[in-house]
Specification:
Layout: H1 2-19, E1 27-32, H2 39-46, H3 49-52, E2 56-61, H4 65-75, E3 80-84, H5 87-93, E4 101-106, E5 109-110, E6 112-117, H6 118-125, H7 139-152, E7 159-163, H8 169-179, H9 185-188, E8 189-193, H10 199-204, E9 210-214, H11 219-224, E10 227-232, H12 233-236, E11 243-248, H13 249-254, H14 256-275, H15 277-287, H16 297-304, E12 307-308, E13 317-318, E14 323-324, H17 335-347, H18 357-362, H19 367-377, H20 408-412, H21 424-430
Parallel strand pairs: 1-2, 1-3, 7-8, 7-9
Antiparallel strand pairs: 3-11, 4-11, 5-14, 6-9, 6-10, 12-13
Helix pairs in contact: 2-14, 14-15, 14-19, 15-16
Keywords: Cell inner membrane, Cell membrane, Membrane, Signal, Transport
Organism: Candidatus Sulfurimonas marisnigri
Signal peptide: 1-21
Length: 459
């Protein structure tokens, strides 16, 4: 009888395997930048998740920064890549390259910081900055800039800051933080792009006063005691979208099963990363290798294991949501998240024509494809691809504003500080649509890592 049951079980396994379509292409190259949020890609490789789905993946560290990543995805040298959430949108709009790229999943929430050097921090403290305040506003920087304008007059020299790419979350977060206190970024400062690993050396050399970057390049400066992180992007916008997995739309069309296999492998890695803090510590050791992030384990653990050290010479502070990979639907590519980046491209003058923002984001972000994959591996889905931000406890903006995709055009012009090249009237003419938004509950289905409080773990 037992032998018969075993034969039946084996038969069912064979049938199940035969029903799973084989990947059209198995040898793949995936590019990444040396940042801790490349972890889902690296863990998918190191923990055998790619192998599990019949893939032979070459994971490559890109030395040419985000422009190098984008060029190689467009050319086909990389089949997939670690990408800034705004990059596939920009390429599809013809801003950053010219190709229909798509974001098939979100790699993480949060993960960035705004770090300033010791010199400018001393100047800001003279204007009332309390660097232990959370979240820390840019009011003292505004006062310092106003005093600098008054002292220098027509010879005013703008302060220089760094970010990683013109369509990066970092560029928009730095500008958002500054503008929230009345700073006009393109008048009062100069904001330049640098590859993430070069940020610390540029600050130490005096080329910039500070920067916005992902980890571990904030903690590197803090531990060297050359500066402090004043604010994280979680402080600016709780559980904000950060990186995505991108590929070309024509690759997906030609290789749908390969695309799904890659997504499954990386999604399983994201779940593994949020299952326990022990897994995060193991991930830090893996990421420290020379062919990955190439940073000390002690530096990587500062942000990966539920803490973050903001200030030089002081202890780390509890920050369990600094990196979120799977919990709270962090892997889900929300249309509303993608559209927020389009509003910032308009706000800061990067788009010079009126486009239907809903049509654009629905051609770039793929929650439909994600839903297919998620159901196959048991990843829970939010109630809708459209939601508001700034209305729930764990997705607030530091300035209290609300992001509602149904008011996207109004949102662009709501602050009084923008550099838009397209008028509100022009945008309203081509954005007459409406969407139904639904708010997801805050849940942590996969484990305590990346979770606000263990009480939300529902495993």
């Amino acid at each position: 009888m037992l032998a018969k049951i075993v034969r039946i079980g084996l038969g069912l396994s064979v049938v199940t395997a035969s029903m799973m379509a084989a990947p059209e292409k198995t040898k793949l190259t995936i590019g990444f930048i040396a940042l801790t949020d490349c972890a889902p890609i690296v863990i998918a490789e190191e923990k055998g998740f790619f192998d599990k789905y019949g893939l032979d993946v070459h994971v490559v560290k890109e030395g040419g920064g985000w422009p190098g990543i984008q060029q190689k995805v467009i050319s086909g040298e990389y089949d997939f890549s670690h990408a800034l959430a705004g990059m596939p949108i920009a390429a599809t709009l013809g801003i950053n390259g010219n190709a229909n790229l798509q974001a098939v999943l979100s790699l993480d929430f949060n993960g960035n910081g705004i770090t300033f050097g010791n010199k400018i921090i001393k100047s800001m403290e003279k204007y009332g900055m309390d660097k232990t305040s959370r979240p820390l506003t840019s009011e003292s920087l505004k006062k310092y800039i106003d005093a600098k304008h008054k002292a220098e007059g027509s010879n005013y020299q703008p302060l220089s800051f760094g970010m990683v790419h013109p369509v990066s979350t970092h560029n928009y977060e730095l500008r958002y933080w500054m503008a929230s206190s009345g700073i006009v970024p393109d008048r009062d400062t100069t904001i330049k792009p640098f590859p993430p690993p070069t940020m610390p050396s540029n600050l130490i050399a005096g080329n910039i006063e500070g920067y916005c970057v992902g980890e571990p390049w904030n903690e590197r400066i803090v531990l060297k005691k050359k500066g402090s992180t004043l604010v994280t992007n979680y402080d600016i916008w709780n559980n904000n979208p950060e990186k995505v997995l991108q590929t070309r739309a024509d690759f997906i069309k030609k290789n749908p099963e390969t695309t799904k296999a890659v997504m499954k492998a990386i999604l399983e890695a994201q779940i593994w990363l949020d299952t326990s803090w022990e897994n995060r510590k193991e991930a830090a050791k893996i990421l420290s290798k020379k062919n990955y992030v190439n940073a000390p384990v002690s530096v990587l653990e500062k942000s990966m294991t539920g803490t973050f050290q903001y200030l030089k010479g002081q202890k780390s502070e509890a920050n369990p949501m600094f990196n979120v990979f799977a919990n709270y639907y962090a892997a889900y590519p929300y249309y509303s998240h993608g559209m927020w980046f389009i509003t910032q491209m308009y706000r800061w003058g990067q788009i010079d024509k009126a486009v239907d923002m809903k049509k654009v984001i629905e051609s770039v972000y793929r929650p439909d494809l994600f839903a297919e994959v998620a159901k196959e591996i048991g990843y829970s889905l939010p109630p809708s691809a459209w939601k508001k931000d700034g209305v729930d406890k764990y997705n607030m903006f530091m300035d209290g504003k609300v992001w509602d995709p149904n008011k996207a055009v109004e949102y662009i012009f709501s602050t009084g500080i923008d550099e838009s090249k397209v008028s509100k009237e022009e945008l309203l003419k081509v954005n007459k649509w409406s969407v139904k938004t639904e708010q997801p509950n805050y849940v942590c289905p996969y484990g305590p890592a990346g979770c606000a409080d263990p009480k939300f773990v529902i495993k």
